[in-house]
Amino acid sequence: MNAASLARLLEVDELAEALGAVEQALARSLEVDVEAISGPARRVVLGGGKRLRPALTLASAVAAGGAVSASAVTGATAVELVQAGSLVHDDIMDEASERRGVPTINAVEGPSSAILVGDFLLARAGQLAASVSAPVAAALATAIADLCRGQSMESGTLYDAHRTVDAYERSIEGKTAALFRAACEIGALAAGGSPAAVAALSRFGVAFGMAFQIIDDVLDVVSTAEALGKPVGNDVREGVYSLPVLLALEGSGGGAIRARLGRSPSASDIDAVLSVVRSSSAVVDALARAGEWNRIATDALAALPATATRDGLASLPDAYLAWVLGEKAPGVAVSAGR
To answer: Among 168, 281, 302, 335, which one has the highest count of C-beta atoms within 10 angstroms of its own C-beta?
Structure first.
């Protein structure tokens, strides 16, 4: 789902140009006279990505009754810097060697350098948000705090085969949905949207973020290493038992899965777990839950005035689900039908 397809779906003609402006702003934000920070920061921030969250910020500005302004571009840039900084920190915790085919900072420069770069990116994001307005800065800071809370909740349930679905959802509401929420709020705030518009777009962002993370977790079970750019079953390997695994644990194959889970699972353990999850109803059920969140997201936008961009945003969650399954797991695309 590239900028051109997003522009068509969201009915924002200037979206591709605005995302280009975000890219330029990202590059400027990484300018610092310390190569040990700027070099690795450029590698990870400018190394690609869907830029979905900045697109949400820009579209939310339009849906809230505003325009793709310089303030919206600055807010979108801040959101993407938080995304990048949080991923740098995630890579440290996961001891990841690469992301999307780009070597991680902790693998090349070391964990200490990665901590500094991640902190630098979050600080730069805060500076940009504050340059837009105090409410925008507050929205971004709240999201960062929620990211930490959600990640901590996940860390507290690592390798816990008794993790509940409720605990899973509360974790991803912080670690993923909070930044989607902020992306939409910041767009509305940058556009001078009404409190009702900000609240509606906030609810949309949370629900879309929830669905986004569930879909990502499903892909870790059903996709391929070639399609994902990383090994499948990574969550099982790292002790992060996400929705499809939790649902499978509740089914008839739960005992067989539980016996394979734990610290340092072997390759055969991971393959066995994935096989049971794939053969159960867990994948379809998890995608159905993503679909429920998509409906919540769409319904949230009913509070906004009817415009082409509002309708485009309303159709985005289902369009994203269909696109990502078609790209990375075409074998299960039909099963996801709602």
So the answer is: 168
